[in-house]
Design goal:
heterodimer; A: mainly alpha; Outer Surface Protein A, domain 3; three-stranded antiparallel sheet; 11 helices; B: alpha/beta; two-stranded antiparallel sheet; globular
C-alpha cells in the first residue's frame, strides 16, 4: 500500500472521529499542541459542507425543526452517512430514512415523508428540461392500441405518498406564502412533484390519479395503469387527468407497443 | 502554451445565485465570471439556464472543488465525465481544479485537503492532470491551496511542486494570492520567495479573496474583503509576472454586488499600476 494512501486513510479517520487525532498526528508537522485546533478547522468545514448541502435540499424540513436542531441533525446524519461524492448536490438521499429512524425526530412523524417530498423536488429542480412535442399525435393513435400507450414523463416527475398532509405542510412553508396556516393533521396526502418550465411544482393528487401516475411512472402501459387506478378509486377520471398532464407538460411524449 | 482567450487584464467575479437578477439586469462590464463546476452538474433547470444566460453575456470560467485529483486510491471517473459534459455545454474560457484531495475510499469530506509535497504525490498528480487534460482535450489550471496543517515528510515547497507539475504536464497554474498569504502566516514562510519559484508563463489566472483570523491562524473563508497584505502581495505578483486574468472570490456571507464590483475595480487599478511601473 502506498504511503500516501495510508496517510489519507489516517487523516480521514481523524477528521471523522476526534478520538483518532493521533492517526493524523503521526504525519503532521508543527506544534502538537496546535494540532487539535487545526484539525478542528477541517472538521468544522466538513460539517458546514454537509449542513449546507442538506439545507439546500431540505429547506422546509429545516424551517420545521429550526436552524439549531437542523444543524444537530446534519451532524448526526453526516456521522452516520458521510458524503460519497465530490458533488454535494448528490448528498442527502438517505436523509428521509435517517429522520424516520432517528430517536430525536420520533415526535415529528410526518418529517420523513416531508423530506422525501423535498428530495424529489431537489431532483426535479436540476432535471432535464422537457422537450417540445406535439400532443396532437396522441389523437392519431388507433383506438384499439390506446391501452398500449406508454407515456414519457417530464424528467424529475415523482409521486410521494404519505399518511400526513405533506403537500399542505410544504405549501405553507414556501417563501412568499401568505394564506392561512391551518393544517388538518388527519388528512394524508399524495404529492405530485414535477417541473413546470424552470419551476418545481408540488400539488396534491386524488387517490385514483396517484395510483395511475405511480403505475405509469414505473413503466406501465395506459390500460394497466388505468385499471390500477380504477381498482382503488372507482371515480377515477382518466380523460381529465390526461388533459391536465398534457396541458402542464407532465407528459412529453409516448410510444405505442401493441401486444 | 495558451491557456485562455481572456485578455491578461481581464477581471472577474464569482457568479452566485443571490446576484443573478441584478447581474443580468445591469450586465456590468466584467472580463469574465466564474462558477464552481459542481453546482452545475445538472441535466437542466433554472441553474443551468442562468449559467447559459451568463455565458451569453461574459466568458465563463469553471472552477472545480470536487474532482479530488490527489486521492491515492483512484480518480473519480464519473465526476470527470460530468465535468466533461459541462465543459462541452458551456465552452468555458478556463477550467481549473485544486492541488488537493477531498476524500478516500469513497468517503468525501467535501473540503480541500492538502497533499504532502513529495515526489510520489507529484508523480500521482502529473498522471491525473495528464488524464484530465486528455479527456477534456484542453489544458487545465491547478490552484495552490490554503492549509492549516503541514506534513513532516515534505520534500519540496508547494510552489516548487506546482512549477514542476506545470513543466511535466503543460497545465497552467491558478495562483491564489490569498491562499499563499494564509499559508505564509500559518506556517511562517516568506511568500515572495515562493513567488520566485514559479515561472510566469505557467500562471494563467489569479484568485483574490478574504480570510479570517482565529487564534493566530488565518482561515480562508472567502467571506471578507481582500486584506491589505493580500493586495500588496498581488501587486508584487503583478510586477513580477505581469497582469493575469484575476478573480474576486466571495462564497460565504455574500455582500452586495457593488462590493464585489468595487473589489474587482481595485484589482484592475493595482494591475494597471504595477504594469505601468515595470
Amino acid at each position: 500500500m502506498s504511503e500516501l494512501l495510508t496517510l489519507q486513510r489516517d487523516v480521514i479517520a481523524a477528521l471523522r472521529d476526534a478520538g483518532a487525532d493521533a492517526r493524523a498526528a503521526r504525519w503532521l508537522a508543527g506544534d502538537p499542541a496546535h494540532l487539535e485546533r487545526r484539525l478542528a478547522i477541517y472538521r468544522a468545514n466538513m460539517l458546514a459542507s454537509a449542513e449546507k448541502a442538506l439545507s439546500a435540499a431540505y429547506p422546509v424540513s429545516r424551517q420545521v425543526v429550526g436552524d439549531d436542531f437542523f444543524r444537530g441533525l446534519a451532524r448526526a446524519f453526516q456521522r452516520e452517512t458521510p458524503s460519497t461524492s465530490g458533488d454535494l448536490g448528490d448528498y442527502g438521499i438517505g436523509f428521509p430514512d435517517f429522520l424516520a429512524a432517528f430517536a430525536h425526530t420520533q415526535s415529528l412523524p410526518y418529517l420523513a415523508d416531508l423530506a422525501r417530498l423535498e428530495w424529489a423536488a431537489h431532483r426535479a429542480y436540476g432535471a432535464a428540461d422537457a422537450p417540445d412535442w406535439v400532443p396532437s399525435a396522441l389523437a392519431a393513435v388507433d383506438p384499439e392500441d390506446q391501452a398500449a400507450i406508454r407515456f414519457a414523463w417530464s424528467a424529475g416527475t415523482a409521486v410521494v405518498d404519505s399518511p400526513f398532509p405533506i403537500v399542505r405542510l410544504w405549501t405553507i412553508h414556501q417563501p412568499g406564502y401568505t394564506g392561512e396556516f391551518d393544517v388538518d393533521w388527519r388528512a394524508g396526502e399524495c404529492a405530485l412533484v414535477a417541473r413546470d418550465g424552470f419551476a418545481v411544482r408540488v400539488s396534491a393528487l386524488a387517490r385514483g390519479d396517484a395510483a395511475f401516475l405511480r403505475a405509469a411512472l414505473a413503466g406501465a402501459a395506459l390500460g394497466d395503469a388505468a385499471s390500477a387506478a380504477l381498482e382503488l378509486a372507482p371515480d377515477f377520471d382518466l380523460g381529465a387527468l390526461l388533459a391536465r398532464a398534457v396541458a402542464t407538460r407532465l407528459v412529453c411524449g409516448f410510444t405505442v407497443e401493441p401486444t | 502554451m495558451t491557456f485562455t482567450t481572456l485578455p491578461a487584464r481581464a477581471v472577474g467575479i464569482g457568479l452566485r445565485q443571490p446576484h443573478y437578477r441584478e447581474l443580468f439586469e445591469r450586465t456590468p462590464a466584467l472580463g469574465f465570471v466564474e462558477v464552481h463546476s459542481e453546482n452545475f452538474f445538472l441535466d437542466g433547470g433554472a441553474s443551468m439556464h442562468a449559467l447559459e444566460r451568463a455565458r451569453a453575456a461574459w466568458p465563463v470560467s469553471l472552477h472545480g472543488v470536487g474532482l479530488s485529483l490527489g486521492s491515492a486510491d483512484e480518480l473519480a471517473r464519473q465526476h470527470l465525465a460530468k465535468l466533461q459534459r459541462l465543459v462541452e455545454r458551456i465552452e468555458p474560457t478556463l477550467v481549473s481544479e485544486h492541488l488537493c484531495w477531498t476524500g478516500i475510499d469513497g468517503v468525501h469530506v467535501n473540503d480541500l485537503l492538502p497533499l504532502p509535497p513529495t515526489h510520489a504525490a507529484l508523480a500521482l498528480l502529473a498522471e491525473r492532470v495528464d488524464h484530465v487534460q486528455s479527456v477534456l482535450r484542453r489544458p487545465i489550471l491547478i490552484e495552490n491551496l490554503s492549509a492549516y496543517v503541514a506534513f513532516h515528510d515534505a520534500e519540496m515547497t508547494e510552489t516548487a511542486f506546482l512549477a514542476e507539475l506545470a513543466r511535466r504536464t503543460g497545465c497552467g497554474l491558478l495562483l491564489d494570492i490569498n491562499n499563499l498569504w494564509v499559508n505564509a502566516v500559518n506556517f511562517g514562510f516568506d511568500p515572495s520567495a515562493r513567488l520566485a519559484e514559479l515561472r510566469g508563463e505557467s500562471i494563467a489566472q489569479i484568485h483574490l479573496a478574504g480570510h479570517a483570523a482565529v487564534d493566530a491562524c488565518l482561515i480562508d473563508t472567502h467571506g471578507a474583503l481582500v486584506s491589505t497584505d493580500v493586495w500588496t502581495l498581488f501587486e508584487e505578483a503583478c510586477r513580477r509576472f505581469g497582469p493575469r486574468p484575476t478573480l474576486i472570490e466571495w462564497d460565504t456571507d455574500l455582500p452586495a454586488l457593488d462590493v464585489l464590483l468595487s473589489e474587482a475595480a481595485r484589482a484592475a487599478t493595482i494591475a494597471d499600476r504595477a504594469h505601468a511601473d515595470v
